[in-house]
Design a protein that fits this description.
heterodimer, A: 367 residues, mainly alpha, two-stranded antiparallel sheet, 75% helix, B: 300 residues, alpha+beta, 8 strands
């Protein structure tokens, strides 16, 4: 396990290199590039949908719940973000009601807004976590490097989204017809070329810097853009693989939110964190989020459907509404420019527990 | 006798190998209609109605049936798919160019429950185009007068859900039963691996009286959206200095999002046929989402 020896500098990892690697994106790369191709051709089969759904219960739905838990779990957040916590959900609710009142005229566009925003939101998370790993490893990208990193990550979003928006056939989401923009094919091809160019330039800039300083770039910092590319371009081209991407996005998020939760709870606790505390708090937090996810994505649509709205429309609209609200919230509560956000995100969980063990698990003052 | 016996045996073997249900006469392709009530799977009869089947597959592959609807549900008789011209999203030029009148292909296929029968105007048996019916019961009076070109393979429960929807005196459902998308699977095996949506209740929205092609609802929605924007702007103006700059800025962004959403509902169908408009809408929406990235940001 790699640890920071200098106490003033954070550990490069939330847990350790292998654990972070697997959960942050490496696991998905291994699955999509090396495991799934051995026995599956990428078709969206009934079995794939079933497995994807089970994983959704465990990874994707809880990650939405974790956002709500984080925003609404503390009164100070409600005071700090009144528009995000109160006005934004009301506006989203109005949108959902409009879908039920005018399903033919509105629901397709409401779902469209969610489906458009979703991959953009994935890209924002990828960029943020990549920069976070860079910071943890003491790697401060220059303006060129940062711009290229951002351009490559958002470029993969544009490659995928523009590709799906060519033509007028659109898509179907729980029985709701979602229109496409009908952008010209050359635009998607142009952005693909630009994204590859940015990717090559990014790795060139990083390589030149490594040669100059004699220090290799942080591995996980570069893993994130590669992960995003694999999700959007490799898995995105195969509907059967793409079914699992939301799970890995949720997993990535849950790692970060879990570390933040443990750090903040440890800071609030009158005693130093122990392994037992870590286990109990992790299990409590995860169980709450699984239940919250099931409430938001399973119980709520079924409840709304009982009011007389068809289940497929209720599912499409509620899932879209919860996720649109999640995009609002995530953009606000995870800003790395905010000191109160970034400080706990530099935690290393084993260090946190071991440090307290070394102190003899005595009461300590809140840090 | 000794020469006849092997031939007889071969004939009996061949008969035994041929499926008794007539599936040997089905086309390899399967067509899936994804509707809000669930998925319907159709198989086609290329031997009985070769031209109709060819044209039907061509239209499905070109997306002509996307956003059409079941416009008429007559219990015990038919569930009729609307004409492609009556679909929600206007046809593209290249899609319209595919439409043509089809001659009647009369055969010994009967109008039994599940049969697909090409609709045509009264008195014009060679005027069938895209509208067709799924038979909900036997109708021998139609045999030989309409082209039977396929059969429902899966989706009885979906039709039952559609039957729950209240109807007008003209048998038009009070809820729009949109066919969100239609697609062709090249074989039954390919379809067997695909995920198919089960039947869902759709009758719940019947309390409201939706009718196809009624633009009044779109205007109602737009009016409500504009009213919401006005109320938000008025609230910002009334609260004035009591709002911090951060909160006021966040509210302005919400107004912007509502406005762009309204524009999207208004212009996207048109943008599908005008590249410049489509590109402008795409990047306009992207710009708004980017602006929302710095929504209610705190630096503390």
């Amino acid at each position: 396990m790699t640890r920071a020896t200098d106490s003033s500098r954070p550990s490069p990892y939330f847990v350790s290199l292998p654990v972070d690697f697997l959960l942050i994106g490496g696991g998905s790369i291994l699955l999509f590039l090396f495991v799934l191709p051995l026995f599956h051709d990428g078709t969206r089969t009934a079995r794939i949908v079933e497995v994807g759904l089970w994983l959704t219960w465990l990874g994707n739905w809880p990650h939405f719940s974790a956002t709500s838990y984080r925003l609404y779990g503390r009164a100070e957040h409600l005071r700090q973000y009144p528009i995000t916590a109160v006005a934004a959900p009301l506006i989203v609710l109005v949108g959902a009601l409009a879908c039920f009142l005018w399903p033919t005229e509105v629901s397709g566009y409401f779902v469209k807004l969610f489906l458009f925003w979703s991959p953009y939101h994935y890209s924002g998370q990828t960029l943020g976590i990549s920069l976070l790993y860079g910071r943890r490893a003491g790697h401060r990208p220059g303006s060129w490097e940062r711009s290229l990193l951002s351009a490559f990550i958002y470029g993969t979003f544009l490659m995928r989204t523009l590709g799906a928006e060519v033509g007028t056939r659109g898509s179907v989401y729980y029985g709701v017809q979602v229109p496409s923009f009908g952008v010209p094919a050359w635009l998607a091809a142009g952005f693909s070329a630009g994204t590859y160019a940015c990717g090559v330039a990014l790795f060139a800039v990083v390589a030149v810097r490594a040669l100059r300083t004699g220090k290799p770039p942080p591995f996980l910092y570069l893993l994130l853009p590669v992960t995003q590319y694999v999700w959007f371009v490799v898995a995105g081209a195969k509907p059967g693989y793409a079914e699992f991407v939301p799970f890995f996005h949720g997993l990535q998020y849950l790692v970060i939110a879990w570390a933040m939760q443990i750090k903040e709870q440890a800071d609030r606790s009158p005693t130093s964190p122990t392994l037992r505390f870590l286990g109990v708090e992790s299990a409590r937090w995860f169980a709450l989020n699984v239940l919250g996810g099931a409430a938001l994505f399973y119980a709520l649509p079924h409840l709304v459907a009982r009011t007389g709205v068809g289940l497929s429309l209720a599912t499409a609209v509620i899932l879209s509404a919860v996720q649109i609200h999640h995009f609002f919230v995530d953009g606000v509560i995870w800003k790395l420019r905010t000191q109160s956000v970034v400080s706990p995100l530099l935690v290393n969980i084993p260090d946190l527990v071991e440090a307290s063990a070394a102190q003899g698990a005595t009461p300590h003052e809140a840090r | 006798m000794t020469r006849v016996a092997p031939a007889l045996l071969l004939s009996l073997l061949l008969r035994a190998a041929a499926p008794a249900d007539g599936t040997a006469e089905l086309a390899a392709e399967r067509v899936v209609f994804h509707t809000a009530a669930g998925d319907l799977v159709f198989a086609l009869y290329p031997n009985s109605a070769p031209e109709t089947v060819r044209q039907f597959l061509r239209l499905v592959r070109a997306g002509v049936y996307d956003t059409t609807s079941f416009a008429r549900i007559h219990p015990g008789f038919i569930a009729q798919v609307s004409s492609a011209q009556d679909r929600l999203v206007p046809l593209a030029v290249e899609q319209s160019a595919l439409l043509r009148k089809l001659p009647l292909e009369a055969s010994d296929r009967k109008h039994l429950r599940g049969a697909l029968s090409l609709a045509h105007p009264d008195g014009d048996p060679d005027g069938g185009e895209s509208s067709f019916c799924v038979m909900l019961g036997a109708a021998p009076q139609l045999d030989g007068k309409y082209t039977v070109f396929g059969t429902l393979m899966r989706g009885d429960a979906v039709l039952e859900e559609m039957l729950q929807v209240p109807r007008s005196s003209q048998m038009a459902p009070s809820v729009r039963l949109t066919i969100a998308r239609a697609e062709v699977y090249e074989s039954a095996q390919a379809l067997g691996k695909a995920y198919l949506s089960p039947a869902h209740p759709v009758a719940g929205l019947a309390a409201r009286n939706f009718r196809d092609g009624d633009s009044g609802h779109r205007l109602d929605f737009l009016a409500c959206g504009i009213l919401l924007m006005v109320l938000l702007v008025a609230a910002i103006a009334l609260l004035g200095r009591r709002l911090s700059q951060r909160v006021a800025s966040a509210l302005h962004r919400v107004v912007l999002l509502v406005g762009v959403f309204l524009l999207l509902t208004l212009l996207l169908p048109e943008g599908q046929h005008r590249s410049l408009l489509a590109v402008s809408l795409f990047f306009g929406l992207l710009g708004v989402i980017r602006a929302l990235g710095s929504f209610e940001v705190s630096t503390k």
